[in-house]
Amino acid sequence: MSKSSILRATLASLDHAIDRTSIGWRKLRGPLKDAQIVPYRSYGTSETLIVRGRVLTNRPIRPSETDSTWRNAVHMLERWASREVPGAEVRARWNGRENHGVTDEEGYFRLEIPTEGRLPQDRPWHDVDLHLPAFPEAKPAVAKVLVPLADAQFGVISDIDDTITFSSATNYLRMAKIVFLGTAYSWLPFKGVAAFYRGLEKGTAGRPVNPFFYVSSSPWNLYDVLRDLFEYRSIPAGPLLLQDYGVDLTKLIHETHQEHKLRSIRDVFDKYPHLRFLLIGDSGQADPEIYREIVRLYPDRVLAVYIRDVSSPPERDEAVRKLAEEIAPANCHLILAEETDAVARDARAHGWLEEEVLHEIDSEKAAEPAPRPLEKALHQQT
Fold first, then answer.
1. Do 127 and 176 sit in the same domain of this protein?
2. DSSP state of 52
3. N or C of the chain: less Cβ packing under 10 Å?
4. What is the pLDDT of residues 297-323, one digit of tens each?
């Protein structure tokens, strides 16, 4: 056995031992009564609904706009100190039928529900009721599953950090301050991005028909923050494909940024072979390279690649421009731009959104409220 395999196995065993010890101590104080289901927005097809989530014993976190920086930090520590419940049975009920599954060592569950041709075709989101039979005091939950409408014009796959919201992913100290001291109410999206995404969601259909999928290397512990951020900032809802930072026998700490994103995007492409996609990311990490690989693997499936320019070294901009030349023969173009306006104009020129969206972006930018004191503090240069 290699040294890396031995280290991986040792860390996995230690991680599992800590989790089981924690569960054991809690059971000594009496039966576990405070378990909660944390459902994740997921996606499926007309044949199968995929339900995902996690079972924890942490108390639900309920942040507010008036929380202090100290309270935000406490909430963030609570998110990271997740107390998962392994081996818990989860039952899902949809359309009169019940399915069940069991959580893994990290408390995650994944259920597949056959629709048997009974899936309503008039809406993209479908609710699945969840409950824990072994925890009668646990509140039921509702999982939301996206199935793209038959008249969807295209799909959108978007990064989050430094693409939708400013997080300074290339400056780790600054990013840590934003993440650990901020909330959904203090994280700042780039100006105009919410209006742009709402415009893409409608396309030229006049109503929301185009599905969004958000792929990020952020951990699942931040799921509620990102979900609330999108709702608070009026950004289209979509499945959040985040990363598991746990340790098990198949991965050391977590997948790399590239591996996680590439695997997640490929799964979406494979689920919906009839859809073409817009890919949106930033130049700070490896989004351009990941998207180039997607263009190679799925020729004629990518409409365009939009990259927000957040990197300062000129050599990085040059590298992204070379990538644009590489994907051009695949009938796909890449736009590198600092502002939302530039990619919105390109989308309009190709008929992917209406003219009025450009005016809505301008209006949103003009009406953007001044950052509150906490927002200013979090986004100052470190």
1. no
2. E
3. N
4. 999 999 999 999 987 788 999 999 999
